[in-house]
Amino acid sequence: MADVVIAGAAGRMGCRLVALVQEEKDLRLVGALEAPGHPALLKDAGEVAGVGKAGVPITADPEGVLGRDRILIEFSVPDASLGHLRMAARGDGRAVIGTTGFAAAQREEIERLAREIPILLSPNMSVAVNVAFRVLADMARLLGEDYDVEVTEVHHRFKKDAPSGTAARMAEIVAQALGRDLTKVGVYGRHGLPGERTQQEIGIHSIRSGDVVGEHTVSFGSLGERLELTHRSQSRDTFVRGALRAARFIAQAKPGLYTMQDVLKLS
After folding, report:
1. Residues that are catalytic
2. How far apart are alpha carbons 152 and 139 in whole angstroms?
3. Are 236 and 221 in contact (CB under 8 A)?
4. Residues 177-201: pLDDT tens digits?
5. Which domains, and CATH codes, for the chain?
6. Which residues, 6+ apart, have CB-to-CB distance to 234 below 8 Å?
7. Rounded to the nearest 5 degrees, what angle is found at the Cα of 146, between the Cα atoms of 145 and 152?
8. CB-based contacts of 4: which residues, under 8 Å, 6+ apart?
9. Is 99 exposed, middle or buried (0-12, 13-18, 19+ CB in 10 A)?
10. Could you give the CA distance from residue 120 to residue 250 in angstroms, rounded to a whole number?
11. Which of 57, 67, 65 is nearest to 94 (CA)?
12. CA-CA distance, 19 to 39, in Å (whole number)?
């Protein structure tokens, strides 16, 4: 039985994590975290999630719940996730992080922390999206230089970062497969008179609308045809079930930095 601590337990993803971990026979909820001053503090995590009493109060004290071999699962904001990761490392814990929007320096610190404890970091926990990551590299290599690449993502109005971590990862995969440097060829939206599209550029575009859970499309277009790979998420439970699958993996892992590609044996 692996012990799980859910950060952001009163948020959209946190509530679904609390709800679905109750269904798992090999995972046990032992801690729930929220930010200081959050109205859900001291309330039962299960009741906040709408699934009845879980016997785990929501707290703002990470040190009180992050302990040896306990698995932190978090979908929140970079600063909070990094702070929790530092505490998990001090306590010989483990972590599954779905937070996106980390700056380069923050990612470097995560890599350093992963030398001390097992950390799984993935911009998207969906099994199908991770299969798409694998397929995209092959598509890019097979189609080659004659096809224009555009990445479009759609998310709910509440999402704070843009582009999504998934869209950014898709663009990185395509760029690597084509031998391009995304920092030089990435074009994030267009406005005015940018001129004709260059052959090397990779377009990345973000749409924020209503309650869309998540939609990503990578388009490969040439003169005469277009091939698209699209993934649509209809429920956050897709990501939650992937995160719980990742938790089972990280419960047995040695210190290191892992992704869902490792969980699914796609790497």
Report:
1. 155, 159
2. 17
3. no
4. 999 999 999 999 999 999 999 999 9
5. 2-121+236-263 (3.40.50.720), 127-233 (3.30.360.10)
6. 213
7. 85
8. 21, 27, 28, 29, 30, 31, 70, 71, 73, 247
9. buried
10. 7
11. 67
12. 19
Residue 256 identity (one-letter amino acid): G
Cα-Cα-Cα-Cα dihedral sign, residues 76, 63, 49, 260: positive
pLDDT at 100: 87
CA distances from 39 to 11, 34, 59, 60, 77 (A): 11, 9, 11, 11, 18
Q: Tokens at residue 226, please?
A: 């277009």
Q: 96: which 2 tokens?
A: 């599954």
Q: How far is CA 51 from CA 30, 46, 54, 84, 92, in A?
A: 16, 5, 8, 26, 31
For 95-141, write each residue's pLDDT tens digit: 999 998 899 999 999 999 999 999 999 988 999 999 999 999 999 99
Extract the tokens encoding 15: 């509530």
**Are 123 and 159 a contacting pair, CB within 8 Å?**
no
Look at residues 171, 152, 148, 170 and name the one whose alpha carbon lies nearest to residue 224: 148
Phi and psi of 232, rounded to 5°? -120, 130
Query: Which residues does residue 221 pair with via DSSP β-bridges, in sequence order?
Result: 148, 226
Distance CA 186, CA 36 (A): 38
Residue (of 240, 244, 248, 245) closest to 16 by Cα position: 240
